[in-house]
Amino acid sequence: MRRTLGLFAAVKPARYLEAGAPTGLTGLYTHSSPRSSLLYLYSRTLEKLRQFPESSLYRQSVEALTKHRMTIVEAAEPPGYNEWAAQARKIAEANPRQFSVTTAASSDRPAETATVIKAESGGRLFVHRTDPDPEDVRYEEWDGERDEGPGAEGLKGEEDRKDFEVLFSRQPNGDPKNMTKWQAEPQLTADQIEEIETKIGAGLIEEVVQCAQNELRLVDIMYENKVWEDLEEKPAEGQWSYHGTNA
């Protein structure tokens, strides 16, 4: 998997992982922005844990683990992050909760448009970027039109021509003039990601993101079931005793 990247440390001073590339685990691909995703998930988890009583063992254990991992992720700061964060905050504060953005074209990537949604958690401002799904003609639904064979597409009548005029005179959705120019978030280097993975010790950073997502969902389930309350049915005497030790 990605552990072999350490062999090339002397070749390139700054190496970055390609988003969407295989990680070596089936169905798991390289995350595009793991740092900001983890910080948001951890902030939301800590925010929801405040609903639990402070005496809850579940809150105490999850809170300690989440804060520990959050500290590790915060310590790894991508190059140029502070400048980007200051500029991104200005753009986000000057726009409504949801707005459209466009990224500048580069040598290997064309300009892209996306929708950005603002979210606040734990006193932090996060922006969630939703990219449009790529179009694939193979999955387009057949419109039911019957193939009339060659020669049926000849000259059109006046009514048909009007339909074609509307079709070919359509303007693309989203006026570029109303779109905000957005700079992509600086990414962690491969060495920074490997350092986070080593300190957390829970596999690849993509696995850590999945774990954080599952924990955030679990918090709602545990709160709904009020896990801090006593059991309705008291356990039998000695049920939790193992080899003379009370659990």
Secondary-structure element order, N to C: HHHEEEHEHHEE
CA radius of gyration is: 26 Å
Class by SSE composition: alpha+beta
Largest sheet, described in full?
Answer: 4 strands, mixed
N- to C-terminal separation? 39 Å
Helix content: 25-40%
Overall pLDDT score: 76
Put simply, the count of helices is 6
Description:
The chain has 247 residues and is an alpha+beta fold. 36% of the residues lie in helices and 12% in strands. The chain has 6 helices and 6 strands. A hairpin with an 8-residue loop joins strand 1 and strand 2 (112-121). The radius of gyration is 26 Å and the shape is extended. The two termini are 39 Å apart. Mean pLDDT is 76; it is low at 105-109.
Briefly, what is this?
With 247 residues, the chain is α+β, with helices and mostly antiparallel strands. It has 6 helices and 6 strands, in the order αααβββαβααββ.
What layout of secondary structure does this protein have?
Blueprint lengths: L33 H16 L7 H19 L5 H13 L4 E6 L8 E10 L2 E7 L27 H11 L11 E2 L8 H11 L4 H20 L16 E2 L2 E2 L1
Parallel strand pairs: 1-4
Antiparallel strand pairs: 1-2, 2-3, 5-6
Helix pairs in contact: 1-2, 1-6
